[in-house]
Write a structure and sequence with these properties.
Length: 59
Amino acid sequence: MKNKIKATIFLFVLAAGLALSACSNLRWGADAGVDVRFGPNGPKLDPHVGVDLYSGGRF
């Protein structure tokens, strides 16, 4: 029973997010990469992955 409630809430939030993003011209964007920082002990690589919401135009 609790799993059905959680699944229903998840689907409702997902549908609301898609509806609101369509209405307000928002779009989902994902990015991934590596940042290189140089310090006294040599270069350090920091991987990053992100998901963002962008509003406005496509460009």
